[in-house]
Design goal:
Largest sheet: 8 strands, antiparallel, barrel
Strand content: over 45%
Number of strands: 9
Shape: globular
Strand order of the largest sheet: 1-3-4-5-6-7-8-9
Radius of gyration: 18 Å
Structural class: alpha+beta
Helix content: 10-25%
Number of helices: 1
Order of helices and strands: HEEEEEEEEE
């Protein structure tokens, strides 16, 4: 095998390992309790009680969510690339949902979703 082919294989293998390592790191950053800081629809602030909107993600792939009007979800989640998948297991007839992670740091999370064709962005901060 030519030296350039071996180098290419090594580069691809390294990229795969780096990608897999980043997924694990992002899930570690995601774990914890998150509180809503802002919520917009079509770029405009939505007037809702932000203190009622929160997520909790665990290191073993489970989440809890509560929102306004006493809405609650809980189930499993996975983070693949910039998509956060959730599967609610407490509400009947739930299906897996995906939202786009716009940004994820150790203390802030911003996700984009769509409802009835309207883009919504929820930004949260980590409370622990």
């Amino acid at each position: 095998m030519k030296k350039s082919n071996i180098t290419n294989i090594a580069l691809v293998a390294g990229a795969i390992l780096l990608f897999c390592g980043c997924e694990s790191w992002n899930e570690k950053k995601l774990s914890g309790k998150w509180q809503a800081a802002s919520f917009t629809e079509n770029g405009m602030p939505v007037d809702v009680p932000l203190e009622e909107i929160a997520f909790e993600f665990t290191t073993n792939g489970f989440y809890k969510f509560h929102s306004t009007l006493n809405y609650r979800e809980a189930g499993t989640f996975s983070l693949i690339g910039d998509l956060l998948y959730t599967l609610d297991t407490i509400n009947e007839a739930s299906s897996e949902k995906a939202v786009k992670v716009l940004s994820l740091t150790l203390d802030s999370l911003s996700i984009k979703m769509h409802e009835d064709g309207h883009p919504m962005i929820l930004t949260l901060y980590k409370i622990h």
